[in-house]
Amino acid sequence: DRHCTKKSLDLLEQNYSKIRKQRAVYLRAALDHYMHCIALDAGEGKYQGAIYRILHLWFGQLEESSLDGEPDPRKEVSELLLKRFKETNDLSVFTSVARQVLSRLDERETERQVQQPMRVLLAKLLQQRPQELLLPTFYIGTLEGKKNAAKALIDHLRKQADFAEIVTQTAQLKDAYIELAKSRWAVALGHIPEKCTVSTNCKKCVSTGAKAELKKFTTTSQNRAGKLSGINFRRTEPKVRVPTVAAPADPGDAEICVVSFGPNVDYPGGVTFPKKIVCIASNGQHYTQIVKSEDPRGDVVLSQIFSLVNVHLARDAKCRQRQLELGTYNVVALGEKSCVLEFVDNAAPLGNILGSSTNKETYNKSLHGRFGPPGSWTYFQSFKAIEQGHADDDAAGNGSTTAQLAAYNKVCKHMPPVFRHYFAESTRSAPEWFELRLKYARSVAVSSMAGHIVGLGDRHCSNILIRETGRQRGSLVHIDLGIIFDQARHLPRPEQIPFRLTRDLVDGMGLAGTDGVMTRCSQESLRVMRENKYALLAIVDVLLHDPLESWKISNEKRQQKGDDNEGEESFSNIEGQDSVSNIDARIIRKTIKDKLEGLVCGELLGVQGQVKQLISEATSPNNLSLLFQGWGAWY
Question: Residue 447: which pLDDT band, with cuts at 50, 70 and 90?
Fold first, then answer.
């Protein structure tokens, strides 16, 4: 028996070794052919999907180890890609994934061989797309274990006469943005936090609408003006593109570069005390930006995924006919907790429109304040009622939700939806009203489906904007994208809904509600995403295995969402775990894959069935009643 068992094991090992060798051959062939596609593409972007497949295969191989007696597969793949990167002249199509390559930089001597193709690729990209890649490279240079590698890339570019000035200007701009992000509003307003008797850190001394001079935002104790106020590239030729402006559609078009900044800073409101500034560009236009001191990586990740979804929506005839498109905005990471974001002009938060305010004067100007029937509740009354429902069920224990559901139904009875009046007030004719409402319903549909796929949570009224002017008037833009990959299901008050589709949002769709345009456009959007699931999964694979990414919810973020249980564990929030583990990555990928295949509770659904199920979950009073009161589920 032992002899037979040993013989069987030897045979299995031989077969396994043979399969691994065949796999290595196929892997090299696949990478070689994908790179051949890139070379033929010559920067036109026709083979965009090949980029994500290359990175998926490349990075996946880097995480494997060789068996005894086998050649090192990492060495073979690295040699192949190094040769291809050197031979291919135009590698600009890799710009969209350059951040993931940058995050793999490693200074360890043992990793030198696998690092060579990365550094050759990044060196070429910095020369071909310096505007897009210099700021991300400077950002990587602030992280431990990558500083020298990033500095070497920047210094190599700086030594070339054609790029010396753009590197210098980018470094100045980056340092100035970071100083502004770290500066405190209280100091700029002239308060002395140590002597303030109003509140800790003068938090209550800074109210929405506050304004201060840009030069007063500094991190030094000396009477020195802030660095950003000293930025003035008029004296030399402006070289650095405005960070929040997209690249020109035609490579031959002139770049929109930073010249200087407006003299004042506004406080738009927010728990992280952001700064709203105006960037004056070389084309004479003014671009509004938000500078924050918080981790921007969730926004950056979702921007990449949403951009890829938009590409596939634009290629589909039915989606193109319906003009289905996700609203996006530009986010640029500057430091570990510093970023600059594009301010979405001419857009208003749903909370401002509907009346998510405890201020009586502000509430009376909102739709609920003006169109609510006599005797209807205010936002504050509704908030307190839902809060009491949570408290009653918590006191009862045993996982009871009876009081929460009763409180939610009572609030809904005293606050009928009024969002339909927004479209009547915003238009002057029936065709204009119909077009605006149609644009809105389509936008809700596509953003809901995409948000469900990536597990986007924390969709309270202040995190959803509606555009009020321009070509995209009536469409939604989701902001504050930090809670993704279904992390919201692990909050103290778990979100059991796939996306926000509350009574007021449905009210704005007209008499048909979700049974009209919303359902049809949801089906078309989801169909396209399911048909292109491998392309979406490829970018998800790259992002999930990004060693810089940390998908857990920080204690600060949990406290903002009403967490009183900091010790509570979940797969996405484990004490001492700074980055997603391989197990977590597989769980997240499996969840996204199931959504793209229509697998719901072990049952495989078609597109229509899946959409119907999702809408049912999103509008269920049982699910909505469980949400944190600050989410405003009754709106």
Answer: very high
Residue 235 tokens, joined? 């004296």
Contacts 24+ apart (CB under 8 A), 44-53: 45/93, 47/93, 48/93, 48/96, 48/311, 49/535, 49/538, 51/93, 51/94, 51/96, 51/97, 52/97, 52/535, 52/538, 52/539, 52/541, 52/542, 53/538
Contacts of 322 (CB under 8 A, 6+ apart): 442, 521, 524
Q: Is the pLDDT of residue 24 over 70?
A: yes
d(CA 539, CA 53): 8
Least Cα distance to 60 among 16, 104, 19 occurs for 104
Alpha carbon distance 564, 408 (integer Å):
22
**Which among 9, 31, 80 is positioned nearest to 71, based on CA atoms?**
80
Digit-coded pLDDT (tens) for 292-310: 988 777 788 888 889 889 9
User: What's the pLDDT tens digit per position in 9-19?
Assistant: 888 888 888 88
d(CA 118, CA 37): 19
**Residue partners of 431: CB distance under 8 A and separation at least 6:** none
Which amino acid is residue 305, in one-letter code? I
Judge whether 633 and 405 are in contact, CB under 8 Å: no
What is d(CA 33, CA 11) in angstroms, rounded to the nearest whole number? Answer: 33
Stretch 595-624: mean pLDDT: 94
Residues 6 or more apart whose CB falls under 8 angstroms from that of 420 comprise: 507, 508, 510
Q: Render 208-257 in DSSP notation, one character per residue.
A: TT-EEEGGG--SSSSS---TGGG--TTSS---SBPTTSPPPSSTTSPP-B
From residue 607, give the alpha-carbon distance in Å to each of 512, 523, 524, 528. Answer: 20, 6, 9, 10
Pairing of strands 599-600, 258-261: unpaired
